[in-house]
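During the no-cost extension, the postdoctoral fellow (Dr. R.K.) reprocessed legacy sequence entries with the updated structure-token encoder. One reprocessed record is reproduced below for audit purposes.
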Amino acid sequence: MTELKALRLRIYQPHAHYRIPFTYQRRHTYPIPPYSTVIGLLCNVLGIKNPKGEGEPHEQGCNDSNCTFCKLKKLKISIAGRFESKTTEYTWFRNLSKNSHIKRFGSTNIREINGYIEHIGGQSPVSIDILNEVELFIYLAHDEAGFLTKIKDDLKNPTQRLYPLHLGRAEDWIVFREEPTLVELQEKIPDGNYHHFFWIPAHYAQNGQTPGLRYRVPTLYKLTNGTRNFKYEEAFLNDGKIIGLKGYFDEQISMPVFFSKRLEHEAAK
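Re-encoded structure tokens follow.
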């Protein structure tokens, strides 16, 4: 039986929103974060500052064996989680276009309504779906065990972090249910209902099985002329019923683990 060493992150969030990118006036959320959101957390804790800009050495092929971002791109990620309830918040978003400002105030030279000075631009009502009492299980695998140890140490003592640690919106702070832990995974998955949502990458589906709704889940991106151009992993969103799938299994907590392909090169374009 094949074993694999991985880093397990068990995370709690009182509230979270993992936005589905093509939703606007009502902003829907995935039930668990996409790969890109987890990558953002790792870049934050490792102190990686905007390494994906156009013309950066990483985009040209970095040969530095000690480059943290190049090592990060060789990670494989597994994400599972659940939440207690979902609520919808109603808020106002600012629109800074000139036409929106004129529509609200009547002139570009006016910022006052009913005796109050307001911010420039207009306002748009937006509904945001919020997950409550979120629990996540994130596993990271890498060819270099030392890099997993570095991530573990930086999560325990995030002296290099760029911002407060969060997943989703900036206000969606995280709490660790346990210290980040290196674990040995077994290559097997018993059939059953595990009562969590999972991203199951398409390469796990066999014999025409479709273990959930299929998505193109964002991973890494390249910044081009101010626009984020993402790579994607084809993955199924599964609601916890696992039947006939082979992957890895965390015996300590009875949790299936489905790793993405390596972030670099292998993700679908």
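The CA atoms of residues 19 and 29 lie 4 Å apart. The helical segments are 35-46, 57-60, 68-72, 98-105, 145-156, 263-266. The remaining legacy entries will be reprocessed before the final report is submitted.
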